[in-house]
Amino acid sequence: MTSDAVNTQDLHYLSISEASSLIRDRKPSPVEVVRSHLDRIDALQPRLHAFITVTREQALENARRAERDIQKGTYRGSLHGIPLAHKDIIWTHGVRTTPHSRRLKDWVPAENATVFECLRAGAETC
Known about the structure:
With 126 residues, the chain is mainly α. It has four helices and no strands. The mean pLDDT is 91.
């Protein structure tokens, strides 16, 4: 998909590489990319049950922060502004993380897993 053909309703179909290049060039914004993914989750979640926890507000705030950084000329690399979804076995501070266990269905970790910290920081070679 080229930047000329980008439809904001189809942003969830972009590869990370495509989305990253477009975000770096400020077309589209990270907020538009995240909203497209959230809309797709909303549309398919009732049928697929693919997510246990969706951190909608956190995702939008992270996208707004990335957008501000990029507008100021601070682009941190190919994961900057890319929405992140991970398996429910990855500890995420303050977010219910069940590790697919009924015994842990309401567990909220007090810290983040290292892999989550690396991805959140945009460290591609952690």
